Amino acid sequence: MDIRFYNTLTNEVEQFEPLEPGRVKMYSCGPTVYDFAHVGNFRSFLFADLLRRFLEASGLEVSHVMNITDVGHMTDDVAADGRGEDKMQVAARRLKEDKKSGKVEDGAVANPDDPYEVAEYFMQAFLDDGRDLGLKVVSEYPERVPKATHFISEMQQMISKLIERGHAYVGSDGVVYYSVDSFPKYGQLSGNTLDGLQVGAGGRIDISNQSVKRHPADFMLWKPDQKHIMKWDSPWGAGYPGWHIECSTMSMQVLDTDVLDIHTGGEDLIFPHHECEIAQSCGATGNELFSRFWMHARFLLVEGEKMSKRKGNFFTVRDVLSGKATGTPVHPAVLRLELIKSHYRAHSNFTTKGLTESANTVRRLTELGERLRDACGDVPKEIDHTDHPVVKKFLHALANDLNVSEAISVVHAWISSPGKDAAEAYGVLLALDQVLAVWELTARDSMTDDPESEIAIKLCALIDEARRTRDFSTADTLRQELIDLGYEVRSSADGTLAKKTLARPPKAIP
Ligand code: AMP
Ligand code: ZN
């Protein structure tokens, strides 16, 4: 199949083929684990997931790595020279406040002064959110989800190599800087030029530290700092690494290659983060290319503005799923579909209307899945992805720079089409769902194997108990409790059953 993707590096839609036939090596910038991820962050992560699942459904083997940033990401990251405060420090301070105010349950983080504990807490939260939303890479933790703090010596080796090769120097302030003048292609990804990146340029270049840097855009690789919340010994003094060096190091180490096939991230990472990654990686290897394709997801917006922690206009994944954000619990499959259903290179708005539409699609697909599964006795026909007209059409849409809305309209047309053979259609649904992962998330809601439904099982038993004693008002109260938790409740002579609801629209996005 002819696969074509837009490459930020060339500003063109290009044909994609992995360097090693049949095997794709792909790296995605993951979360900074200083807070719960918001749904905007997950738009970026799920875009990478959609891409990965599409490549796999097209018959390619994909090694996908997504890192965990647990050190070195400063609040002032645009300055790229260590100004600001480490986000882990901010997290520790906020956790302490949240513990005091009861926002974080007692005992969740025994010692918020320990940055490793703080990072672990938010990393586990990210892994949980990822599992909820079908982010496949989290099932490959820890091998494919490396932590920056586990790669400090590899980062130091890379920094030494950059110094040896004349790409880095120790400034009079003791900080190791990358010398952008040593890498004439600096700016190729973002469209910047070295001349344009002078002091203060559009607020993107820090105006402090200029006397020690050779070029205003030189960025930090290692900062000696005895007082830093996390520090390691190094040839340049005890301190911590810059944010960019971790991704250069971990991508090449974990994927075991000098040249990646695809590198992804949100649009805000193009400059300086990815620009600096290219300079570091090519500087250390001497290669012309670091990643052959660079793919970036545009932002998720709320009322036309970027959803961000800084602006405070964000909803965490857990608040959306639990209903705290919108007034009604949202099924994980609905949130997943909502975050992947619009083209990754267009901004997408997080709205009640969008969630409602996604809920309807999820319901249609799930009801069909249940019918087909029961009709064929859970024995799907095996489908040849390259041959079956529906699956082929679906994958062809995605092969065109991930045209997901066209792919979803193929799904809708197929759902509406009459006269399906159950075993074949169930096979088709599973093939489509390898990419969509909607059925994957709804089918796991059965009462027996969903551990989250323990509370639902308990409430159902209490309802049955109340019904037996004809205490219908208690039964009604318990029923409402289940509904508020996001369940649909059905009582019959055989007893009460609850199932996570799919289609109830959220009340409002505040
Ligand atoms: P962070 O945890 O801040 O390092 O960000 C993790 C990822 O989320 C990065 O790839 C960002 O580009 C991405 N991101 C942050 N805000 C948004 C947003 N509103 N929409 C889409 N992606 C975002
Ligand atoms: Zn990164």
Strand order of the largest sheet: 4-3-9-10
Structural class: alpha/beta
Order of helices and strands: EEEHEHHHEEEEHEHEEEHHEHHHHHHHEE
> Per CATH, what is the topology of one domain?
Rossmann fold
CATH architecture of one domain: 3-Layer(aba) Sandwich
Q: Which class of one domain in CATH terms? A: Alpha Beta
How confident overall, as mean pLDDT? 90
Helix content: 40-55%
- Tally the beta strands: 15
The CATH superfamily of one domain appears as HUPs
* Binned strand content: 5-15%
| Shape call | globular
Largest sheet: 4 strands, parallel
Structure annotation, total helices: 15
CA-atom Rg in angstroms? 25 Å
Q: Low-confidence segments, ≥5 residues, pLDDT <50?
A: 447-451
The CA-CA distance between the termini, in Å, is 44 Å
Question: Which ligands occur here?
Answer: adenosine monophosphate, zinc ion
